[in-house]
Amino acid sequence: MFLKGTLKTNLVVHKVVKVINIKKEGQNPGNIPVQVVYKDFNADLKYSPEVLHFLRKKLDDFTINIFIQAVRENKEHRGLVKTRLPNYHSKRKKYDAAFLILEYQGFLDKKEDGTATPYYITIRGIQLGQLIQGENKRKDEGGLK
Prior knowledge:
Blueprint: E1 2-6, E2 15-23, E3 31-39, H1 49-57, H2 61-75, H3 92-104, E4 108-110, E5 119-121, H4 123-141
Antiparallel strand pairs: 1-2, 2-3, 4-5
Helix pairs in contact: 2-3
């Protein structure tokens, strides 16, 4: 059994073709290659409102501010590079923790680009942005839920 195909973590869709050998019943012992294709549906996965609210409650103000900066950078299609943030070297642990949380919750995705690693908003990140925008709108109107 061996794997054939490409695995790139920075692409939206991953393709892995697994070739296995099976014996077909009623034939001489011969091997018939079978291809099984696995797709990554992670790019299209959206959170339910309940899950989105739960994950939003787990984010502190610093992490939300980092996320908002990433949204601003994504409007220009540049992505946010964390080493370009102000005070990055003095607050490195705090920045790294915020990016790690946002990435593993699925709100940001990093893409290798030479020596820089910009972070981009995912579909779930767009959902979080809309939720934060709604919270800010309610806060401006005077009644935060």
